[in-house]
Amino acid sequence: MRDKILELILIIPAILIGFTFHEYAHAKVADMLGDKTPRFQGRLTLNPLSHIDPIGFIMILIAKFGWAKPVQINRRAFKNGYKDDLKVTIAGPLANLLVAIVFSVIFGLAYKFYFINNYTDITNILVQILNLIIIINVNLFVFNLLPLPGLDGFGILEDLFPSAFGRISDSLYRYQFVIFALIAFGGARFLEKPTGIILDICSKIINGIIA
Q1: How many other CB atoms are found less than 10 A from the CB of residue 6?
Q2: Alpha-carbon span 68 to 144, nearest angstrom
Q3: Are 112 and 210 in contact (CB under 8 A)?
Q4: Which of 33, 53, 126, 132 could form a disulfide with 84 if both were Cys (CB 3.0 to 4.6 A apart)?
Q5: SS3 label, residue 201
Q6: Which residues neighbour 148 within 8 Å (Cβ) at sequence distance 6 or greater?
Q7: Other beta carbons within 10 Å of 86
Q8: Between these two residues, 174 and 126, which has the higher pLDDT value?
Q9: Residue 174: CA atoms inside 13 Å, Cβ hemisphere, count?
Q10: What is the distance between the alpha carbons of residues 10 and 14, in angstroms, rounded to a whole number?
Q11: What's the rounded Cα separation, in Å, for the pair 157 and 146?
Q12: What is the pLDDT of residues 165-192, one digit of tens each?
């Protein structure tokens, strides 16, 4: 019981970092491309409180499946239409991948220079937090690229193939809850392979720095 509570506490920073950087990236790129909606809504910040959805946050702690507060954008504000929208959409997952890589480097440097390799209670906690930040962000990167309604992967396909996905998007959104419920209750095992490949790359980054 104690270990479960500790695990929940340690995973909170990873979730906050993952969700915050993901949504901030959407907002920042949209703002850079001419849409000031995220700016007016206070989303151009790294303050987690501006990006966290309370229910989605609680759900990810309980069911390991949750969501952040989506960044609202006005596509008509973009000069290059779907091309700019595509950049905004892909910015979120790429931010998670970048966070995972950056924290892999931080992990490697911290270990190499003896900040986290003396095996005290504090350093063990720091190691767990760093590990969780990397794992959560890799999972967010892979999961958000799924071509499912409500995820960035679906938005990317909508931008690339507007005619085809325009015809089926309404039907898919109708079953959105059912799809995510299936994933939440054990249907996400197919993500283990791509997630494992990226985590292996992160491990190689860490080991390459330590060596």
Answers
A1: 12
A2: 12
A3: yes
A4: 33
A5: helix
A6: 154, 172, 176, 179, 180
A7: 17
A8: 126
A9: 5
A10: 8
A11: 10
A12: 766 776 676 766 777 666 666 666 778 8
d(CA 140, CA 110): 24
Q: What is the pLDDT of residues 106-124, one digit of tens each?
A: 999 998 887 777 777 888 8
Distance CA 16, CA 77 (A): 29
DSSP, residue by residue, 45-74: S--GGGT--HHHHHHHHHHS----PPPP--
Q: Is the predicted pLDDT of residue 31 greater than 90, yes or no?
A: yes
What are φ and ψ of residue 159, in 5° steps? -70, -40
Integer Cα distance of 159 and 103 in angstroms: 31
What amino acid is encoded at 140 in this protein?
Answer: L
**pTM for the whole thing?**
0.91
Q: Please report, for residues 51, 101, 184, the alpha-carbon distance to residue 178 in angstroms, rounded to integers and kept in the order given.
A: 25, 33, 10
Active-site residues, by number, are: 23
Q: Transcribe 25-44 into DSSP letters.
A: HHHHHHHHTT--HHHHTT-S
Tokens for 158? 């909508």
- Higher-pLDDT residue of 39, 159: 39
Per residue in 53-99, pLDDT (tens digit) is: 999 999 888 877 788 999 999 999 999 989 999 999 999 999 999 99
Instruction: Please report, to the nearest 10 degrees, the dihedral formed by the alpha carbons of residues 182, 186, 192, 195 taken in order.
Output: 60
Distance CA 160, CA 183 (A): 25
